[in-house]
Specification:
By secondary structure, the chain is mainly alpha-helical. It is built from 14 helices and five strands. The chain folds into two domains: 211 residues, Rossmann fold, CATH 3.40.50; 90 residues, Orthogonal Bundle (Tyrosyl-Transfer RNA Synthetase), CATH 1.10.240.
Length: 330
């Protein structure tokens, strides 16, 4: 029997190259070997104020991009988080056993709200608990995560242990992190020490998956490097050029050493041109498929509904097990 892998992505803003290389490329490797549940985290997306039309469009656009990038509804379960009500219900139960102090230590909450915590919504504060429910509902064996998500997964493991110890039996499976190789964290094109992000105010900081060839060329041309001569890889001393080399390595399949050897005496301009070319070659078929799918939105909705029907089977089984342990009538 295949092991279970669970992961999701917010539908806030457009997916970018960092999402593709840091998450979806790895999902593609998993879908043949694991029983995969890949969801659109639309409940998480309303922790910031959004227009209903914007949220609706983002859900459909993200679904189209998932499919365009190679995720197969025949191989994996693709669904919107909000279409499986068990996510919210389990999250409430987990909220009732999760110590407040644990959530106060979550670094992503602090990073997002800064000093103005009084204005942050409760949903943003309890975001990691819903994330735990997302994972635990499906009995995940592994969760593909980047370095920035390790703390959330540790919290998920701790919450599952609380439940299991409370009832002295394995009610919830304890998931393991799956960190896959180079490029699990693609950095900003403007700052090699910051993760490439949908929320960055500068569009030049990222390559969006729907960008035209000319937009990609211009963004890579303008991508920050440094004043040192030649190309070398050192993510601490030279974070910007090292980030570009990481991107090239993943897309080309070449080793970092081989790339450095090929371009170290050629200069940034030629390297950036080659990098832009390989990004364009990768994203062009995705863009073409995306455009085609967005013209048939009924099909996208059907994919989500069918995925939700499949996801609800294990989700209901897990939730009923938890509710029964607590003493609820099911």
């Amino acid at each position: 029997m295949k092991k279970i892998a669970v992961s999701g992505s917010q539908v806030t803003g457009a997916l970018h190259l960092g999402n593709y290389l840091g998450a979806v490329v790895n999902w593609l490797k998993l879908q043949d070997d694991y029983n995969c549940f890949f969801f659109l985290a639309d409940l998480h997306s309303i922790t910031i104020d959004r227009l209903p039309t914007e949220l609706n469009s983002s859900i459909l656009q993200t679904t189209a991009l998932y499919l365009s990038m190679g995720l197969s509804p025949q191989k994996t379960t693709i669904f919107a988080q909000s279409m499986v009500k068990e996510h919210a219900e389990l999250a409430w139960i987990l909220n009732c056993v999760t110590p407040l102090g644990w959530l106060k230590r979550m670094t992503q909450f602090k990073d997002k709200v800064g000093k103005d915590q009084e204005k942050a919504c409760l949903g943003l504060f309890s975001y990691p608990v819903l994330m735990a429910a997302d994972i635990l509902l499906y009995g995940a064996d592994v969760v593909p995560v980047g370095d920035d998500q390790k703390q959330h997964l540790e919290l998920t493991r701790d919450i599952s242990l609380i439940i299991n110890r409370k009832f002295d039996q394995e009610i919830l499976k304890i998931p393991e992190p799956l960190i896959q190789g180079v490029g699990t964290r693609i950095m900003s094109l403007k700052d090699g020490r910051k993760k490439m992000s949908k929320s960055d105010t500068s569009d030049l900081s990222r390559v969006n998956l729907y960008d035209s060839a000319d937009q990609i060329y211009q963004k890579i041309k303008k991508a920050k490097t440094d004043d040192l001569v030649g190309i070398s890889y050192d993510s601490n001393a030279r974070p910007e050029i090292s980030n570009l080399i990481d991107i090239y390595a993943i897309l080309s399949g070449n080793s970092i050493d081989a790339i450095v050897e090929q371009y170290q005496n050629i200069g940034f301009t030629k390297f950036k041109e080659a990098l832009a070319d390989i990004i364009i070659a990768t994203l062009t078929p995705i863009n073409m498929k995306y455009t085609e799918l967005m013209e048939n939105q009924d099909y996208l909705v059907d994919i989500l509904k069918n995925g939700a029907d499949k996801a609800r089977i294990p989700a209901t089984r897990t939730l009923d097990k938890v509710k029964k342990a607590f003493g609820f009538i099911i």
